[in-house]
Amino acid sequence: MGLLRAAGVVYKPVEQLDLGPDSNEIYVEADIKAPRMGGLLAKIFAWILESRIFGALAFYILKRLNRVHKFISNATVEEPPMFVPLHPYVDLDEQEVIEIDSDASPAERVQQAMNCLPLTSENSLDAFKFSCFRRWTIADYSRAYRNGEITPLKVAERFIYAVHESSSRPLSIAFFINYDAEDILRQATESTLRYERGAPISALDGVPIAVKDEIDCSPYPTTGGTKWLHKVRPCTGDACCVARLRSCGAILVGKTNMHELGATPSGINPHYGPPRNPYDPSRISGGSSSGSAAVVCAGLCPAALGVDGGGSVRMPASLSGVVGFKPTFGRIPHSGVLPLNWTVGMVGVLAGTLEDAFIVYAAISGHLPSHEPTTLPPKIHFPLLNSTNPISNIKLAIYGEWFNDCNEEIRLCCSNAVQLLCERYNWKTVEVTIPELEVMRLAHYVTIGSECSTALSSHLENLGRSEFGWDARVVVDIYGAFNSNEYIKAQKLRYRHMQIHNKIFAKADVIVTPTTGMTAYSISKNALKTGELDYVNGGIVHHRLQKTKGFLRHTR
After folding, report:
1. Ranges for the Amidase domain (predicted)?
2. Measured between alpha carbons, how far is 305 from 325 in angstroms, rounded to an integer?
3. Is residue 429 within 8 Å of residue 394, measured between CB atoms?
């Protein structure tokens, strides 16, 4: 293929880039050259990629058409590679925060988080009986339990009934891959007894929380959305983040559905069914943490855990209308999580409210186990959400072309939100240019693909691909087509874009953009049995999320 070698970009030094609003850096839109595939077409495409005769040619064409050769493979990048997104801790002078003792237990951190929240009215259950749909918050559960208005056992019984009803026809939402009614009732009974004794462990005691099936949680196997992974990697106990929730008294209600191996943003799983969007069951809830988003959206749990390597918490949260939070790399221990993408994938939180995401984060964050790579652990600061002092002088960085690269409804909604923040708190917007966003997306894709392929390589040698869904099979084939040169170039670009973002954060406190460029799209019938490859819609959704903390580590 040497004669057909595509010319590569020569990247100029970061110091020469103009990041101001009048920069001549060109905004490059995502232009993904791949058809939407499901059903028979997905099967045919998988056979082509795995063919000894046509596979190499197909991979070459895909890389060339999607500008991997131009921006990655044949590019000249002077920066050194950065393999793990860790930086020395910088002690910022932040407003309205308190420093938390790094040795505090999860339950103590939950209490400190609760102390940071504004006081809420003491509404009783009667106040909600005749109102429209309303999600219960963690504070609602804790207050109702303390007041004796309801018990964790009664909540568990209703939860089990609701999951059964919504998983049956005509809804068939498929929230969970595994849930054990007996185990849920056991946990709820123990929590109820603690409240009867007047000794709940924390505000999370008795609160139902779901766990993405990429995270170990006893007594369930960890499937990663597959039909085989739990057979070759048995779950031997709770992941660190799950153990911390359990130590706070939370009821772990099961393993939520997900896209097989977290492969695409639709969240559709051909083995366990599609976790449908509770707002409209004909549409996706988003992936790959699709079940976690759906169970929170439906109000069955105030919060759930997900894993986010390139938007897999934030995308389904956006498409399902809930809060999605992906912490900075290294803030939450990764032990007990499937090692599919170890430098971009982090445990995240999906919740009905920002406050609930904060409470769960307080419980699961903290010191890392000694075997995980890290610099000196950063200090833990919690925001004083109950403070009456305004947070002043906040600068919101906006890259206009990127911000507006979405459908009109989303653009207007997000523009109005920014305007409201600025008017209410007297914050300012700063126009910036963030160059090479499409380059960053491709570098991220090479990184996450290479790491996932490496993690699965020994299993693929033993199992082959016959047990994969057809969509995941195609994705794994593509992941395996990246070579060491492309991986190293991607890590050089990671370091480069770290420096670009550091320069932007010298001008502003936050980069503001819509989370996804479109709303939830419809589930096609032929995707139900084979899964779905929709790189065009997926690219519109992904075009933002792969540029943030999935690939880079934010410094603020």
Report:
1. 178-526
2. 10
3. no
Phi, psi (degrees; rounded to nearest 5) at 540:
-65, -40
CA dist 7 to 2, 42, 263, Å?
A: 11, 31, 30
CA 193 to CA 206: how far, in whole Å? 10
- H/E stretch holding 397 reads strand 395-398
Domains and CATH numbers, the chain: 14-86+433-543 (no CATH), 137-366 (3.90.1300.10)
Neighbours of 86 (CB within 10 A): 15
Q: State the average pLDDT over residues 531-550.
A: 62
Cβ 452 vs Cβ 479: under 8 Å: yes
* pTM score over 0.85: yes
Provide the pLDDT for residue 90.
78
Pairwise CA distance, residues 192 & 152, whole Å? 5
How many whole angstroms separate alpha carbon 338 and alpha carbon 348? Answer: 14
Burial label for 191, CB within 10 Å (0-12, 13-18, 19+), is buried
Q: Which residues contact 266 (CB under 8 A, 6 or more apart)?
A: 259, 284, 286, 287, 290, 523, 527, 532, 534, 537, 538
Structure tokens at 346: 């982090």
**What mean pLDDT is reported for the chain?**
91
CA distance 538 to 540: 5
The residue among 262, 474, 249, 437 whose CA lies nearest residue 347 is 262
The structure tokens 């940071």 sit at: 116
509 token code pair: 């406190």
Secondary structure letter of residue 428 according to DSSP: E
SS (H, E, C) 52-101: CCCHHHHHHHHHHHCCHHHHHHCCECCCCCCCCCCCCCCCCCCCCEEEEC
User: Known catalytic residues?
Assistant: 212, 288, 312
At 234, the amino acid letter reads: P
Residue 48: in which H helix or E strand, if any? helix 40-49
